[in-house]
Automatic annotation (TrEMBL):
It catalyses: Ni(2+)(out) + ATP + H2O = Ni(2+)(in) + ADP + phosphate + H(+). Gene3D superfamilies: P-loop containing nucleotide triphosphate hydrolases. Residues 386-415 are annotated as: Disordered. The complex is composed of two ATP-binding proteins (NikD and NikE), two transmembrane proteins (NikB and NikC) and a solute-binding protein (NikA). NCBIfam families: oligo_HPY. This is Nickel import system ATP-binding protein NikD. Keywords: ATP-binding, Cell membrane, Ion transport, Membrane, Nucleotide-binding, Translocase, Transport. It comes from Halomarina salina. The lineage of its organism: Archaea, Methanobacteriati, Methanobacteriota, Stenosarchaea group, Halobacteria. Its EC number is 7.2.2.11. Residues 6-310 form the ABC transporter domain. One of its GO terms (molecular function) is ATP binding. It is found in: Cell membrane.
Amino acid sequence: MNGPLLSVVDLHTQFHTDEGTVHAVDGIDFDVNAGETVCIVGESGSGKTVTSESITKLLPIPPGDIPEGRIEFRDLETVRELADAFPRHVFDVVEGEDREQGHGEQQVGDDQFVVVEERSGEDITRGYVDLTRAPEQALRHIRGGDVAHVFQNPQSALDPVYTVGWQIVEAIQLHSDTDDATARERAIDLLDRVGIPDAATRVDNYPHEFSGGMKQRVIVAIALASNPALLVADEPTTALDVTIQAQILGLLQEIQDDLDMAVLFVTHDLGVVAEIADRVVVMYAGEVMETGDVFDLFENPAHPYTRALLECLPGRGDETVSIDGSLPSPTAPPDGCRFAPRCPHAVEECTTGDQPPLHPVEDRDQTVSCVYYGDDYDERVVQTAFSSAQDSSARTDGGPVADDDSVRSEAVSDE
Ligand SMILES: Nc1ncnc2c1ncn2[C@@H]1O[C@H](COP(=O)(O)OP(=O)(O)OP(=O)(O)O)[C@@H](O)[C@H]1O
Ligand code: NI
């Protein structure tokens, strides 16, 4: 077993600006397993897009910068290919004797982005590519190959001067030795699969000859052309027609099951999350507040922030209410839990030190960054208030009340 397909480990992504350093992503951890759909949710500005763009390194660097952390991509085929192509950049844990002799952990060099953890003879059987250290040349190989990034903006993702067929053929041939005729056949097949009627004719059309929804399908077809192990998709705030969006999501899921492809989907729509996610990562102000199985998390939201988010979900709580208060300053984030200034249950410990570690939730497939789930507090305090979070009397238990004069945040579903 080579572990999860993708492991984000202590990722820090910053932007150096005239106003100071923006701590957009400030030490987050989560995994994506092969074949599963993980949704990242959170209010606008919480760092979802920066996280997804850190993975495919589509981040503008500079001003962007990843000073700390790793993004381990554990697709074995990719690890083997890149170990072959970049032999000088391989860190071989197996070959190093230091561990045996008790010299402690060996240091991976800055330019060593392929880490081999286990071999069977010559063959690599466990290891990863660290996407944060990979040079542009290696990233080009990975991007649009084993990791595809779908921008859900048809306007900018397609090249207006080439036919859609040409663009799909290019994507196919970039990563495999496929002759023109075979690639064209596969392009037609892909268009057919994403639900474009009369694909054999449409393959020779230009992007402007397609409607918005059909363009979106073409973009998905291009992303699938290389048979990616992981598809990263960031939902835009200027959303497409909801029915088209639902169709495309349904389509993605069908194809995903066929190809055993993992999907990392960024959204602030909890309805979409309920529909497509296997697991959920809840982000707030550059930190992960909670992760978990989608059923466990919806049934038993553990973090007060997740609870507040769910309260804003239509049909769940009172959807006219948004969470009181606003995101903390990204250049000068507060100590302790980022959500503490808005949390009805915050106690003194919540306002000092680092963001609390992710504690496992008892009997659930969930982890939560909240002191109440540690040994010193009773988590029932944050759980009982769920259904009455809008009731102001419920705010007085467990700790200081959020400042009522503070600015109302943008609603969670602000598209
Ligand atoms: N190029 C940049 N320069 C400076 N700050 C940036 C840059 N890009 C993003 N940020 C900041 O990083 C933080 C996280 O932004 P991000 O776009 O990841 O949020 P998001 O969760 O995707 O929000 P939305 O739901 O609105 O898309 C924000 O404070 C944002 O202002
Ligand atoms: Ni975003």
